[in-house]
Amino acid sequence: MKRLRIEHATGFSYPGDVAASYNEARMLPGSTDSQFVLSSQLDIDPPTSVNHYVDYFGTRVAAFDVLAGHSSLRITARSLVEVRPRPLERTGITWDRLEREAERSIHVVEHLAQTPRTQPHAEVVDLARTIAAEHDEPAEAALAIASALGDAVEYVRGVTGVQSTADEAWQARKGVCQDVAHITLGALRAVGIPARYVSGYLHPRADAEIGVAAAGESHAWVEWFAGVWQGFDPTNVTEIGDRHVLVGRGRDYADVPPLRGVYAGTFKSDLHVSVTITREA
Fold this sequence. Notes:
By secondary structure, the protein is α+β, with helices and mostly antiparallel strands. It folds into two domains: 2-84 and 257-279, Immunoglobulin-like (Sandwich), CATH 2.60.40.2250; 95-255, C8orf32 fold. It is 22% helix and 41% strand. The strands form four sheets. It has a five-stranded antiparallel beta sheet, with no helix packed on it. A five-stranded antiparallel beta sheet has the order 13-12-11-9-14, covered by helices on one side. Strand 12 and strand 13 form a beta hairpin. Helix 3 crosses helix 6. The longest helix has 15 residues, at 138-152. The protein is globular, with a radius of gyration of 19 Å. It starts with a strand and ends with a strand.
């Protein structure tokens, strides 16, 4: 188990004052069966009142308005979280049983449908079906599919953007964690395995020293349902360990962006982001 301190600063700057902005932040982790939030807070500049709630998918949301004129908006999320590894477990569920169980719960069956971001390329569908046919258990097939896709896509920044789709990233065979997650989701759903997008943070060093701050970033991975929900990081082709801090879940990235908002004004906004992660224990 590791204790991680996370500071995630983000926001917008404008070349002049905007009249008002309306925003949602999904930057604070919640406690689960594998992580415990010791403390968390969200600081906003300019100061304003905040409405906190949990959305449909179970993600903590801070909704706030800045109604006075402002030329910049800065949000800083600070969290201290204890995290333990979440190794994959063999569930023994068959394909037929998975189909029956998925249909019984709307919170599972809704993660079978593709979204515009996850709609898979024909080559990905063929690959997923070929791998699935080699396995009697969907959990084993899910791991093999996610691993194969993670190996096939090179991690390269700047090739794709926040609006890129799984199809576009696959054709490039390059992208970031968001792209690899979308490709994997599309493949799993194509063979009847419910799968959801996970956003969070990843400490960049497995051998992190205590008390040493490291430049981190937001991260994305997937969870699939095969009797129970289990997670896997296809970008790094690894199980979810004590360096992964979960923030939110959804059908794809659009359900869990760290910061989303609109503003009144004609200026073009400039987004800035920084993440620092420190191992405390």
